[in-house]
Amino acid sequence: MATINALDLTRAMIACPSVTPEDGGTQKVLQDALAGLGFTCHSQTFSDDNTPDVSNLYARLGSTSPNFCFAGHTDVVPVGDLDSWEDDPFSAEVKDGMLYGRGAADMKSAIACFAEATSRFLENHGSDFGGSISFLITGDEEGPAINGTRKLLEWAKAEGEVLDACLVGEPTNLTELGEMIKIGRRGSLNGTLTVRGVQGHTAYPHLGDNPIHRLVKMLSVLTNEPMDDGTDHFQASTLQISTVDVGNPTSNVIPAKAIAVFNIRYNDLHTSAMLESWLRKKLDAVGGEYDLDIYVSGESFLTQPGPLSKIIAGAVQSVTGNAPELSTTGGTSDARFIKDYCPVAEFGPIGQTMHKSNECIAVQDLAALTDIYTAVLERFFEKSS
What we know:
Blueprint: H1 6-14, H2 26-35, E1 40-48, E2 51-61, E3 67-73, E4 94-95, E5 98-100, H3 108-125, E6 132-138, H4 149-158, E7 165-168, E8 180-182, E9 184-185, E10 187-196, E11 200-201, H5 211-223, E12 238-245, E13 253-254, E14 257-266, H6 272-286, E15 290-298, E16 301-302, H7 307-320, E17 325-327, H8 335-338, E18 344-346, E19 360-362, H9 363-384
Parallel strand pairs: 3-6, 3-7, 7-18, 8-17
Antiparallel strand pairs: 1-2, 2-6, 4-5, 5-19, 9-16, 10-14, 10-15, 11-13, 12-14
Helix pairs in contact: 1-2, 1-3, 3-9, 5-6, 7-9
């Protein structure tokens, strides 16, 4: 059986430029490492209209339950301004105890730590450890998330695969490893509000209908009161206006339409259907012609504190000495799809440099993260045996 080193594997994956939706060979590097441990690997490429094809990987070791799943993504965001990087973003340089490169924090390092932890666990217990270990890896988390985890889960279910628990390796810690486990995420609703009026001369407003005035009123009624006060595990829901656009090149013309875009991050007091009804009721009260287009990237969800969070928290505390906070803060992640199949939680590296120039992770954090994931496997299969 092969022995995996998280630092070496992270560097090998960083060296593959996998700017979403390109894979750049990253999943082949991971697949070869997992195959060396005895995993059966399934590479799946999914397609959809008007979206790029995406490579995904499902790998499993064992055929019995329970099936503990490690999940993550190998795609990364663009590097941005190359001049702001001290080294090539894909050179995976190690300097002064830090590993640099795009994906070092988000989240090729966590996937490599998954792999080394599994390697260690198998060295201790062999392949007959009372269950299965699987990897659910996508190349579409940083992209539109259409041809990635959602479709891979559907494929796995059709193949008879059952996940019993899942740990996602997204960066969850703010400044120190061991601070935070994510047990849920807020929902995210994006709205585009187009208010229509009648174009006219500003000196003759009675001959026109200024949509900006009504748009301002509409935005006011949407934002003048708090949406809620939060719940036991969630922050208060918020509506933030992202942009207001008229595109009017002159000051003496009443425009024919005005557009605003907003985003609602909402807790478990709401669903997207409830929010759409609330929005339309508020807007209808102002009156006038408008269009409201809504896109929901994910509903709010919560994995109630229980066996999975206790296992992860215990593993974290045993390695770092920190008692991690159970949180639902931050943006969305692919856990929003996995929660429909099994209990899911997230724990991964420090996220201070994710998506930034000179993205990095401390080499000592790679070692500690591997220790934590190893302890998670030990505790999970001890509990399930």
